[in-house]
Specification:
Length: 244
């Protein structure tokens, strides 16, 4: 990684201190700024967001590239890159075709409520708000006859689902010790529901259990609709990039 970063115009040494000048380029814009010596990928992303946040389309995927003086062109940011000298970076959108989601119909939909537990209350950002939205989702599921599957992450240590969430009529309430909700019992429950096509997913944390569950369900051919205002994380940056 050191050799790759060195040839790319930025070193990988974390030694030293102070700030390093960096030119941040996005679209047709270029703005000089600085980052702490030894800053890595996350700090560069934070700086891009602070400089261009109102212009970045959060529905697209991006990659950070570094201008390599040796090659006189941009290259993908080397793995493990840390800023140690003056450099130029840019944020480039990836041309990825987004999957189109179909309409939701009660007869082919299941709701997944993920780990809305008491011990997460003080740690998760806006936990009270996502509880409120979760309550309305489950109320709607009962009115429409939509099956609800609920998991609880290690309930012996993290407690049960918060009291505000009414689990009356839930098809399955299951403890788990892995991140994904897609357990054998959950797969068996889905197999019992004819014509399931879509999953509405909400809970915590967005970048861990929600993301892993969504990826596994998509891998099984299901459409996954994540309710953005009913899912959160300890860090808003983790939440943002997980949803992205």
């Amino acid at each position: 990684a050191e050799a790759a970063a060195g040839s790319g115009g930025g070193g990988c040494s974390a030694a030293g201190g102070g700030s390093v000048p960096v030119l941040f380029c996005f679209s047709v814009f270029a703005r000089p700024s600085s980052v702490p010596h030894g800053a890595g990928y996350e700090l560069l992303i934070q700086k891009f967001l602070s400089l261009y946040g109102d212009q970045i389309d959060m529905h697209r995927k991006f990659v950070v590239q570094l201008f390599a003086e040796e090659w006189s062109q941009y290259i993908d940011l080397p793995k493990g890159f840390l800023v140690s000298e003056r450099c130029k970076v840019r944020l480039v959108p990836l041309q990825i075709q987004m999957t189109t989601l179909g309409n939701l119909t009660p007869s082919s939909t299941v709701f997944f409520c993920c780990d809305m537990q008491e011990r997460f209350r003080p740690a998760i950002k806006y936990f009270g708000d996502i509880i409120s939205v979760g309550q309305r989702l489950l109320q709607g599921a009962r009115l429409l006859g939509i099956p609800v599957i609920v998991t609880e992450q290690y309930p012996k240590g993290l407690g049960s689902t918060v009291q505000e969430i009414d689990l009356t009529g839930a098809k399955l309430v299951l403890p788990k010790t892995k991140f994904s909700m897609v357990l054998p019992e959950v797969e068996a429950a889905l197999a019992e529901i004819p014509g399931v096509r879509s999953v509405v997913l909400f809970g915590v944390e967005t970048h861990v259990c929600i993301q892993q569950t969504a990826l596994e369900l998509i891998g099984r051919g299901l459409e996954v609709h994540i309710v953005a205002d009913a899912t959160s994380s300890r860090s808003m940056m983790d939440r943002m990039f997980a949803l992205e």
